[in-house]
Amino acid sequence: MMKITSLLFLIPAFGFGQLSPEINKLYDELSKSKRVESAAIGYGGSESEVYKLFAEIDKKASDQEVEYIAFNGNSVAKAYGSYAVFNRKLKTLSKLFDSYLKNNEPITIIQGCVGSSSHLADELYKMVFWEKDNIKATEVYRKHKASIKTKHELLNFIQLFGTKESKWTIQEIDSVLLKFDRIVLDNPSSSQNLVEQITESYFFIKRKHPEYHDKLAYFEKKYSSEKIKKYLKFSGK
């Protein structure tokens, strides 16, 4: 009994030891939030205090600390941790997605003034998929940056395009998506929402993946999904 008690006593200390005191304090505050918030929320675009905590963690935390939060935090902390893992292009990204898929925790999101419900794996997939738009905006930003002469012009330009420079290339994103697709479609327990998200995303950009046909056909039959059926018809084989 003494050995078991001693082991249980050490578990919190082990978790605490993964984070520096400063990051652990910020992480504790972040973990109190019941929802994931964008940088600005509400009709007036008020600055989110929750997002500010994440931004501070992202600025000060090491890669190892970010990964620890992404894998071991509560659902809100994991969501923010996954943003940092992705933005830093850490090698554990696919492993993180696989981890989320196995226990696809629900999350509540406030994006601007719009609230929604989602899941960790779904949001990570969407973030990667739509990074291509950010890459294109980054290319425009870099092209015109040299012609901007004042800080005021620069701030106006960033505000206009909502640009945060991407570290990714289109080819790298495509490679990550293929890994994510494989992880989802190879798992017969993958949720209907996530499989439909894959098909809807590719249907939206008119990209065919006939090699996915057999596995998508399995999910279409399993979930009787019109969305998956529509993509199968579009993609062919």
TrEMBL record:
Domain of life: Bacteria
Name of the featured protein: Uncharacterized protein
UniProt source species: Chryseobacterium oleae
Taxonomic lineage of the native organism: Bacteria, Pseudomonadati, Bacteroidota, Flavobacteriia, Flavobacteriales
